[in-house]
Write a structure and sequence with these properties.
86 residues, mainly alpha, 5 helices, 64% helix
Length: 86
């Protein structure tokens, strides 16, 4: 399980390495544990300024492992998260 203070730097490395919101969602899934997706959502808001709705969309994707390889679902996640990751 990823600790609360580790999420922001993890997300920053993903984005600095050329990743997008689906790569962040995959990182969230990989580091998920009891309550850690809530911490990850908080880090998304702090690090990139995502809206609450966008954070909920990313958490929902991270909670649904069957959606990982579905390009339609990935495209929808990309379109739902409009806040630029900088």
């Amino acid at each position: 399980m990823t600790a609360m203070e580790e999420w922001g730097p993890i997300f920053r490395r993903v984005v600095d390495g050329g990743g997008d919101i689906t790569d962040i969602a995959r990182a969230m899934r990989a580091g998920a544990g009891s309550g850690s997706l809530i911490w990850a959502g908080r880090a998304l808001r702090q690090e990139f300024g995502l809206t609450v709705r966008e954070v909920v969309d990313v958490i929902a994707w991270a909670e649904a492992p069957e959606s990982d390889g579905d390009e339609e679902v990935l495209a929808r996640l990309r379109s739902e998260v409009r806040t630029p990751l900088r």
